[in-house]
């Protein structure tokens, strides 16, 4: 496995921490929808000052200073105290002034996993999957393309066509463009007989 240069890790970490408030809603179809706290809403929140992110790649890690690009290929795994990301290839484009990132792209078998603790102290897991995921730090917007799906606990939203796109932002709003299916599981006892 290839260990990644610490500067790249710090820059990648900064973009991920800035993505603190993204979260999908549970609405289907092509209508925009929003939710105050989605499954990835805790990302970046209460991040420890000494938190470390590790990026490993089985095949290759390349850095092009002239193009401001770093690429990682071959079973790429990003391990962070707040999330795990797996993909076949990761491309990080730095800003021209090298003070941040312009864009982060994950390609092939993208899986993002985040565990949170709910109000009852139970651990919940949010999982986003797609063929391609793109994150823009300046806007805080993440886009899942190529058969996107999001699972939060027992609730799921799945793109029912390859061209369906799910857009998430750090303010807890999301929008699904294209056909999707949403499954919401009611675990409350509001309808239970008394």
Element-level helix/strand string = EHEEEEEEEEEEEEE
Q: Tell me the CATH topology.
A: lipopolysaccharide transport protein A fold
What is the number of helical segments per DSSP (H or I, 4+ residues)?
A: 1
Tertiary shape: globular
- Kindly provide the radius of gyration, computed on alpha-carbon positions and rounded to a whole number of angstroms: 17 Å
Structural class: mainly beta
Our measurement of the CA-to-CA distance between the termini, rounded to an integer number of angstroms, reads 58 Å
**Number of domain units:** 1
For this structure, what is the CATH homologous superfamily?
Answer: Lipopolysaccharide (LPS) transport protein A like domain
Main features:
single chain, 194 residues, mainly beta, lipopolysaccharide transport protein A fold, 14-stranded antiparallel β-sheet, 1 helix, 14 strands, 7% helix, disordered N terminus
Describe this structure in words.
Helix content is 7%, strand content 50%. It is mostly beta strands. It has a single domain, classed as Lipopolysaccharide (LPS) transport protein A like domain (lipopolysaccharide transport protein A fold, Sandwich). Strands 1, 2, 3, 4, 5, 6, 7, 8, 9, 10, 11, 12, 13 and 14 form a 14-stranded antiparallel beta sheet that branches. The chain is globular.
Task: Write a compact overview of the structure shown.
This protein has 1 helix and 14 strands; from the N terminus they run E-H-E-E-E-E-E-E-E-E-E-E-E-E-E. By secondary structure, it is mainly beta.
């Amino acid at each position: 496995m290839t260990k990644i240069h610490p500067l790249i890790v710090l820059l990648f970490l900064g973009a991920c921490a800035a993505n603190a408030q993204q979260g999908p809603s549970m609405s289907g179809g092509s209508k925009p929808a929003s939710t105050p706290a989605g499954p990835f809403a805790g990302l970046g929140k209460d991040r420890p000052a000494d938190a470390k992110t590790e990026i490993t790649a089985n095949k290759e890690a390349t850095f092009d200073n002239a193009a401001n690009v770093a690429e990682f290929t071959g079973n790429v795994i990003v391990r962070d105290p707040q999330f795990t990301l797996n993909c076949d290839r990761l491309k990080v484009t730095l800003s021209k002034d090298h003070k941040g990132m312009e864009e982060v792209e994950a390609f092939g078998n993208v899986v993002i996993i985040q565990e949170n603790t709910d109000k009852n102290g139970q651990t919940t897991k949010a999982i986003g999957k797609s063929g391609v995921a793109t994150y823009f730090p300046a806007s805080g917007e993440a886009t899942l393309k190529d058969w996107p799906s999001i699972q939060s606990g027992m609730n799921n939203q799945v793109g029912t066509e390859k061209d369906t796109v799910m857009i998430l932002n750090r303010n807890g709003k999301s929008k699904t463009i294209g056909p999707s299916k949403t499954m919401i599981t009611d675990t409350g006892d509001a309808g239970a007989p008394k």
